[in-house]
Amino acid sequence: MRVVITGASRGIGRATALKLAGDGAQAFTLCDIAYLDELEDLARSLRTAGCVVRTLKADMARPAAPAQVIAAGVKAMGGIDAIVGNAGITAPAKLAELDLATWNRIFDIDLRANWLLAKAAYPHLRRSKGAIVMLASMAGVMPQLPTGAYSPAKAALIMLTQMLAMEWAPDGIRANSVCPGFVHTSMTDAVYRQRKLARGRAKLVPLGRVATPSDIADAISFLLSPGASYITGQALLVDGGLTRSILNHVPGIAATPAPKRRR
Length: 263
Description:
14% strand; Rossmann fold; 263 residues; alpha/beta; 8 helices
């Protein structure tokens, strides 16, 4: 498998590259805009495992960047079998106070860049009968305050992925999105270092814990694998049951005793 991964330096992107390499992927094109020393460290690990690796610094807010990443990937790998659209940003804010520049930047990176990435890769994915996984969020499935433009952008990304799935299914290309819940990454580490807050979040999750990047990488790997060859157009929640558990938190319901049987 020849894979392009954006936002690959840390967290879910890094874990996905390592998981796919462990599952037999032979070549990677990895890009990010920051933490480039960590990106090169990841590349060294993959090369040690026998993989061909091309790394790039890429600002996915630039309209030309996605096509440049794809062109570099094709040159380095000889083609593309899979894309993982992981690059994304957030900027919490109330919508009434959000400025236009922040709104546009979030949509440019979280939505437009993924469309342009897929568009540039289309002829190569058509040849390889490849697959796409876009990283959305539980915040794209249910509104989450105060994420500002983030929830709308991730909701649009889910629909973009479903549109790609429907348009490109006749070409043998599959497209799905993964919607993580709470995940402890380097970006969220400041939150999870607060033990009381971390315990509170874990308690909300029916499975009783916050996800690791590897949990999300496992889902991505599955959706790219032959085992998911009949799955397309789906938005897979990987959240430990969190977004389906709202009724479990309604006061009074869980405490209501079961009716006693009459003898």
